[in-house]
Amino acid sequence: MRTLSMLLISIISLPLVFIRKNSIIQTTMMYIVMVFAILLVFIYAPNEQMQGIVQKIFYFHVSSSVTAFSAFFLVFIASIMYLWKHAEWWDAVALSAAEIGVVFCTLVLITGPIWARPIWGTWWSWDPTLTLTLVLWLIYVAYLMLRMDAHDPKRARFAAVLGIIGYVDIPLILWSVEKWRTLHPKPVLIQEGGTTGLPLTMLLTFAICLVAFMLLFFYLLRERVSIIQSQHAIEVLRHQVDDIPTE
Amino acid sequence: MSGSKIFLQQVLALLAKDLKTEWRTREIFTTMFVFTVLVVVVFNFAIGADTELIRQVASGVIWIALSFASVLGLQRTGQMESEEDSLQGVLLALHDRSALFIAKMLAHMVYLLVVGLCTLPLCGIWFHINFIACIGELGIIFILGILGLSIVGTLFAMITLHTRAREVMLPMLFLPVSVPLTIASVYATSQLIAGRTLRDIADYLSLIGVFDIVFFTLVLLVFDHIVED
Amino acid sequence: MVYLNGVIKHFGTITALRGIDLELKRGCCLGIFGPNGAGKTTLLRILATLARPSAGTVRIAGYDAVQEAEKVRPLLGVLSHRTFLYGHLTAYENLQFYGRMFGLKKLSERITEVLQVVDLVTHGHQLVRTYSRGMQQRLAIARAILHYPKLLILDEPYTSLDKHAVNRLHDLIICLHAESCTIIMSTHDLHRGLDVCDEIAIQCRGKIVYRGLSLGTDIQEFEQLYSAYVR
Description:
Chain A has helices at 2-13, 24-44, 57-85, 88-120, 128-149, 153-181, 200-243. By secondary structure, chain A is mostly helical.
């Protein structure tokens, strides 16, 4: 259920990638939503009875998680498009989405233990989703390492293949990790921030927080893609300059 | 239909070439086998003298050893094709490029199966496990699991062929992606050792099967993009 | 036989070929000369279907070399600086492998035949890694012509060949030329190039800057021509 809704969010937000430039209006709107979200989290949303104020991490933890998954979905789609159309823009999108995705993924892996420690007494619980996040982190860090080595189109194609494989692996990893989990004793049975059974105020806060994170993601994506394209343009110019025959 | 006849012929020619070279040098097999045994022995020391504990983790130890040995074997295979750029020569002769992938994958499967076959009796003796009782079912898991390792491994071996840090990149790519396979194989094996039947491990079996099918199809679709320039 | 139109090749931000137009009739022997970095190897790799052009058309024997590459490959024989051979197999086994890949009939006779052409029959059952460099290159020649190619692509074939091998290759090219095999060769050796080729071309910075007949051009003339164009 949760994975399905994450996939849905990833697909719905996909068209946003086609907006190529960050206009002032969009940037201002994003900042407003972000500030609004923080206000909501700390002032509007009520404190949860059992967990206390620590529970507020949930808004950032799950939002980061959804954003990371959307990022990896974008890597998947951009990789397919790159292999199909050979357009460099898609490759730039894939790389940027992977970089930002890894950042959000790291946030999930950091906020998870910070949340878990006061609540469950342990830093890490091998919860299926968290474990999946860890494995994905490894895969996409490997993706970045693969790309850092060389910058030619062949390497970009290898990375695209990895981008596709990494995402297709997700249901398989999730399935296997959930099976594996059933073999290990569970810790205290508090839900890891399921969105069912949440009061409306919390649900609303979470929704705004999620929108803020997604806006941030696409903002960063556009900036990163335009940096990559500028770097490319500089390289092309440099080669043209080198080619001018010296008298 | 002559297309598939050529395809089969080329796969067999490539496979024969790889196996013949390996038979001459026995480099890959020796490396993989010795390494597997080493891993098993060292794990044994690390876990301690508790026979019950060792029996429980035996399955995990075997599959970890096979995964790591797989990485080593793949690196040697890659090296073989880099000398004299023989890969380019093969590409010139190929009708359908996926024949190369299938041949390499089958060759790697053969190496892993032989290594597994040689290591299993040793593990039976050292871990006091009776593999013979479930040898048929175990065989199925091993073949399917090793098939999965070979598919993913061969793909990443070809990808990392010309990367600078090949020794690091190959395991970094191979191990996380094959996590579902490792988990399913390890637990299927340990269930079989504990006396369960195939029906009991049906879900692990289907996971391995799905993994194999999905990745095999995926690799065939994208293989052309990997070998092209 | 060979037709290239507007072939462009980018490697990321580097443009190796900037629009190559080339036509070769069947049975013609073309020598391509040019400085390092001119894109000669890239051009030959595209012809050999080892690389795809970023833009432009490549047709070989009427087939599109990109879309119908698998029809084109059996017609090509490629010789490069790397030998494409397997050190742990014998010469015979190497050729057997390639023969099987190309689906050749009467393989053993053909293998003996090509080994005779390159003068390696006595060493036929020795491991290739025991060969000298020159012997390995001779075997590579045998590998290239094993499947009766209609188009021979040679990328600087005279490099690292000993005197004996150079003469053998020279004779072989003349022989194949006589049998209407189309040949494209890139080389730094102006003398031999002029000797064996019908037509010559000069490639510089990704473009063909000169194309002409070699008949009647003597070596000094050509050297002047070359210096003039490669500026």
